[in-house]
Amino acid sequence: MDLSLVFKQGDGVLITVFLMLLVMSVISWCLILARGALLWRIRRANREVQQRFWQADSWQAANQLIEQSSSPLAALARAAHDGLAHHRKHAGQSLGKAVTLDDYLVRTLRNQLAQQNGRLERGLTWLATVGSTAPFIGLFGTVWGIYHALVGIASAGQASIGTVAGPIGEALVATAAGLAAAIPAVVAYNTFVRLNRVLAQEMDGFAHDLHAHLLTETHDGVR
Fold this sequence. Notes:
Strand content: under 5%
Radius of gyration: 28 Å
Largest sheet: none
Shape: rod-shaped
Distance between the termini: 69 Å
Order of helices and strands: HHHHHHHH
Number of strands: 0
Number of helices: 8
């Protein structure tokens, strides 16, 4: 099978279909590799923060740890600490009177969780779109190619298996190209959704523990 024949003998529509599938596949693989590396770094950084944060001797040591880390758990801890400081600063003003520390920390952590979950979901829309549309784009290319092959055969007045098999076989390559672009995207999408769900549960548990810890430690003077 010589794919160069598609670009040499195919018309503009068929070439456009192949170029679209090629671009979709290249972008998908770039996203897959980038997202895979990012999730690997996040899981490693989260594990480090999870282990060292709760073992810190003081809040100063914990703050130093989270300031040096770019993990989602560190971002949650920074947001909670900043929220605590902000609420204390305005405790005697309208903010402190209108919202309790408990509610303010819950709101701060919830907003930060939403931001981190949004960060984890970047690129998933593209993978889902490629996984659902690439097979149909390839199928369209195949139908278009078969139609023009049959028109050409009818014009030539030859209907032997040799004259039919070649053009139709080349047209079917478009379906294979669509599936080749879609299958990795679907597998990667499902894998990333599963990993994101695990990370979201991990962040939710950390935020819950952090919220309870801050409320408890506040009475002892968190700095």
